[in-house]
Amino acid sequence: MSKHLTHTKELNKDEILQIFTYAKNFFDEKKRDDLKGKLIINIFFENSTRTRSSFEIAAKRLGADVVNLDIARSSTSKGETLYDTAANLDAMGPDAIVVRHNRSGVPKILSNYVKCSIINAGDGAHQHPTQGLLDLFTLMQKWGSLEGKTISIVGDIRNSRVANSDIELFTRFGANVILVGPPQFLPKTNLKTTYNIKEAIEISDAVISLRTQTERHQNATFASLEDYAQNFKITKDLIKDKKIFVMHPGPVHRNIDIDDEVLADERCLVLEQVKNGVAVRMGILKFLLN
After folding, report:
1. Greater confidence, 123 or 211?
2. Contact call for residues 39 and 92 (beta carbons, < 8 A)
């Protein structure tokens, strides 16, 4: 039975910590042969330079063979169904398929039709488990533990798969999570929510800014991104000299999500997240395929 990662809940705490132990060992960036002879197929129905290259580098550093499928030009655009695609990919005998899709639930559905591991690289506004894991890992590297920490997530939370994965993992590891955004961006939730970013930052140990997901909005929710930024951009003025970490899953809308000055600040962990992302994805591949 293959092990899949379509949702953060598929991993228990011990499994997550095991993946993190692997990840720490991969910081030396040396090439290894843990997955020599394994085949990994990246199939992205939605654009993503960052996540796709991160998975590709992770797989290659472990010695696996990687095939990237460009879906925009593939047979699904010629009317082939998702199930046909899954069956055809499975017939090639991969050890894992990394899937990103703009519809929620697609990786989970595919996992029922293939013999190999399915890894969700983001599905609609549902889940982005590997991003959630690398965010958790990044904070645990800084703090050792999330117990008693307060983390604010700012922005278009209702449309954010990253927020869903982060919330599930952070709360499970003992953090308090505050959701910050305009009313139309906030989901129905039992978590503390606020429209006042200043208030949230005052009591937070870390803040995660999200990209405004304009492509997922049915109709314009703000007159402009600048209007949104006036109330929800992370600025030096907001964080002052506070002991706080600033994160973002990327790509960052500069001076909309976070201003230039904060991006250059040593408390900003955006590039560290990218670096950790490769190590954590290596850990995930080793965990699922070894």
Report:
1. 123
2. yes
50 is known to lie in a ligand binding site: yes
Domains and CATH numbers, the chain: 8-128+277-289 (3.40.50.1370), 129-274 (3.40.50.1370)
Please tell me which residue, 115 or 82, carries the higher pLDDT value.
Answer: 115
Q: Helix, strand, or coil here: 42?
A: strand
Does the annotation flag 51 for ligand binding? yes
Q: At what angle do helices 129-143 and 49-61 cross, to 10 degrees?
A: 70
**Is 267 annotated as a binding-site member?**
no
Question: Is 100 labelled as part of a ligand binding site?
Answer: yes
Q: Is 250 annotated as a binding residue?
A: yes
37 among annotated binding-site residues: no
The length of the chain is 290
pTM given for the model: 0.94
218 annotated as belonging to a binding site for a ligand? no
Strand-pair partners of 244: none
Q: How many CB atoms lie within 10 A of CB 144?
A: 8
Query: What's the rounded Cα separation, in Å, for the pair 214 and 192?
Result: 24
Phi, psi at 138, each rounded to 5° = -60, -45
Sorted by sequence, the CB contacts under 8 Å of residue 230 that are 6+ apart come out as none
Q: Cα 290 to chain center, whole Å?
A: 23
Half-sphere exposure (CA, 13 Å, Cβ side) for 192?
A: 15
Token output for 219: 């109709």
Per mean pLDDT, which range of 20-34, 68-82, 145-159, 190-204 is the poorest? 68-82
Is 36 marked within a binding site?
A: no
